[in-house]
Amino acid sequence: DRGVYLLISLLQALNGFVLVVTSEGLIFYSSHTIQDYLGFHQTDVMHQSIFELIHTEDQPEFRRNLHWALDPPRTPEGEPSPAVGKSLDSSAVIYKPDQLPTENSSFLERSFVCRFRCLLDNSSGFLALNLQGRLKFLHGQNKRSEDGSVLPPQLALFAISTPLQPPSILQIRTKNMIFRTKHKLDFTPLACDAKGKIVLGYTEAELRMRGTGYQFVHAADMLYCAENHVRMMKTGESGLTVFRLLTKDNHWKWVQANARLVYKNGKPEYIVVTQRPLVDEEGGEHLRKRSMHLPFTFATGEALLYQSAHPLPGFPDLFQSKGKPSKSKKPSCSHVGRSEKNGIDPRSLLGAVMQQDKAVY
């Protein structure tokens, strides 16, 4: 147990993550810290093709470094590149140990740069990583050839992947607070990991009792989140979404999130959201960029459609501002009932806003 704890501490202190890639291009192992740099969970990438994560222009360079002589076999014209797809067994060249350099040979050392897909990088979607390590024999695979004989261990790339650009102090402070939440298809919260409970302050029971997850979203971000929610239901992934979540102590916390559908038997079953906390300055910058692309102002919690300052006829007061605002941090049953009496579905965006406490704004 002490050794495992020490290993986890070393990985957290390391500015990067550990990667083991087979000669076929399959990810044999990745440390859990890959999530801090690329946004992908460890289980999302294990046993997947490394080329699914690498920029198209950098795939030949990565393939070259997987080969012991830096000279991978060329694909005949007219055939698809082995870099495409997840099953690369057909492109693998099997070597006997006596055909390869010894493991301590400097000839097997590797140091090169590739761009990886990054869910946390909102500028280009890719992060340049320096991979430094060496080719070593990967034992214990027990693979067999077509005639049934056991294949000898093959070389695999063991490397530490570090960002080409050193992280800022801000990134170092926030990289270890990435958290994940699980939701129903309508975004109702189901579960939250330990880091999420620290960032937001809620227990899982408190998250589930609110009903719709939009009750935790700032009114000025609801339409923006709903648009990406619809996109995710159509494509399987929301793309980077920056918005404010309500914490238990009634403060707004900016997060950068990416949601994706999880399927079971070919049908979407639930949503998993990976979220990274942002400082207010970062969130404000995203809000300014977002406002430039919308035909209306929605930055203060009020929709001023087409710059109109007049209230829409028949549009109810969102917070029932008559009388004193409720001091309770939990939505009251009277709010829900009132929404239903007015013919407003409490699960709708308007219903979610009406159940929020005016004091949080």
Q: In short, what is this structure?
A:
This protein has 361 residues and is α+β, with helices and mostly antiparallel strands. The chain has eleven helices and ten strands.
Terminal Cα separation, in Å? 47 Å
How many beta-strand elements? 10
How would you sum up the global shape? elongated
How many domain modules? 2
Radius of gyration: 25 Å
Average pLDDT? 76
Strand residue content: 15-25%
Count of runs of 4 or more consecutive helical residues: 11
Description:
The protein has 361 residues and is α+β, with helices and mostly antiparallel strands. The chain folds into 2 domains: 1-69 and 106-166, Beta-Lactamase, CATH 3.30.450.20; 167-293, Beta-Lactamase (2-Layer Sandwich), CATH 3.30.450.20. It is built from 11 helices and 10 strands. The strands form 2 sheets. Strands 2-1-5-4-3 form a 5-stranded antiparallel β-sheet. It has a 5-stranded antiparallel β-sheet with strand order 7-6-10-9-8. It is elongated and about 80 Å long. Residues 78-91, 295-316 and 318-339 have low confidence and may be disordered.
